[in-house]
Amino acid sequence: MVRALALLTTIIGVATPIITYADTIILKDGKTISGEYLGETPTEIKFKSGDEKIVLPKTMIDKIRRDVVVIHLLNGNQLIGKLMEETEDYVKVRFPYGHKKFPRDEIESVEKKTIEEKPKIWKPSERPHHRPDDQSPDVKVNPSARSIIDRYEFPPKKTSLPNDQIVAMHRQVHQFFQKKQYHKAAELLKKIIEAEPRDHIAWYNLACAYSLMRKKRDAIKALCLAVKAGFTDFMHISHDPDLKNIRNTPEYKRLMDEADKIMREGADRTVKQLKKQFGEGYTYFIDEERRLIFATNQSLDVIQRMKEHLRALADAEWADFFEHKPMYYISVVCPSKQDFRRIVPNPAIGGFYNPRNKILICGNMGFVLDHEFTHAMHFADQHARMQQHPIWICEGYATLMEAAHVAGGHCLPWRVNMRLRAIQAAVRMGRSFPWSRFMKLSQPEYMRAAGLCYAQGRYITLFLWEKKILRKWYDEYCRNWKNDKTGIQALEKVTGKTIAQLEQEWKQWVMSIRSQDKREHRPQGPDLGITVAEIMTGVLITQVDESGPANKRLRAGDMILQVNGKNVTTLSELNAVLRGVRRGQKVRFRVLRKLPKRKRPTKLNVSVTAR
User: Fold this and answer.
1) What is the 3-state secondary structure (H, E, C) of 28-65?
2) CATH number assigned to the domain comprising residue 565
């Protein structure tokens, strides 16, 4: 499907050891991407670079340089693919849609070639017509699909419902399940699906309802569509008693057999849906480890900066805030300004995260992106715990990280941001919400006083972070979530104080913040050439001066454990030790450092001469 421009040929002998040859994409702007060519569609090239999968529009590409093997068969046919294995008996070659072994007695010769091609865009063939299933007219079935979940297609959207109504309907479904009214639950879930055809929770609960009603065939369909929509928690699926009645069916067993494959191919399915929504011309990067998909129709520089920033933010939030990583792919889409305003006409909205379809759309990189991405991480943690946290907690974390940065793999929220004036004015005039009321606000109530609520939520969360109890409180809250939906009981337990006492302490702390307050500091005493910050777990080195005495001794990201044999957990403790050090003296640090290829940080002893 592409026109060859150059062909360089060499002969491969029998029993040659297998070598992985790098393929190269040459972009029209002159930049190159090295990796492995995986295949192509009529308008895009699929590529793997390092641990990432990339989907590039052909319109961005000038040339593709690939290392391939050409199999010349005795019957005169010639096939081009990637060499996988070569023995005295056969040659195994991978093609875009599978692999094949060729016996030696059918092969005339095997060549290695470097092919340089220009991409060619062609017209896609029409999609095959799928006949509807007899039992569920709205669900289309493709019995010849390779994977069981691809046998079924989502029904079209029929109605529109506001988000708060859908949330209320889900709560009512839960009540029906508690009363064992599974038929009523199923009917309500169908209405949710008519408005949100890709609501993975609705499909999963519908599968449970059908299973409990012993409608096995319908239960299998709903379960497959739940998985296809993103419900890939196979541990939960395998242990859920509601699905007991379908566990012995061949379809359920096949689904569980395909679990690993489905998880691996989840990103490709998500990208396919994104293409339907956003059209052609977007570049997609797939981070399989973190289950993140980055998409943009802007330059590769934009997506590269976005990837690096959000990867660091995700790792830091998992280290400091949230235990569970996503069990599904989260898509982060950064369209051009023109496309963004077409999607989001309201100029007051800079971006949003939709937890139902797990897509974050943002107009540019900045505080809105960090705010919404933190929502995505928090929703993933709630999903894994099967919990729904109140709005003050959700927005508290998001606003905390909208003014923050990452250093040494940890979150450093700033003391001062645009919301400080609002909360200080409210506290000064006695207009802040009492904590006992604030933590019980519903989403509509919260949004009616959004300016004040966002500010109060941020500075309550920052207060807990500075007291080094944010993670301790959150873990306690999640453990007792069923009995403490607001988080008040957890606060009182981890602090040993009443909510009224905490609120009074918080007010004094809020009013003590000054506009010049900084999170990072140069330690007192002689110059060591380091900048540090106090975080929840101790004192972290955030920067090492290239010309300073600590250069090549200490590193940004080192956690200080001891200085000159004394334990250090706060900035004041560090300063107290360093004030007693004279110039020319050696300062003995014991630090915790993350080293390559080691899962756990390593304790190291480092000496630095003060000057």
Assistant:
1) CCCCEEEEEEEEECCCEEEEEECCEEEEEEHHHEEEEE
2) 2.30.42.10
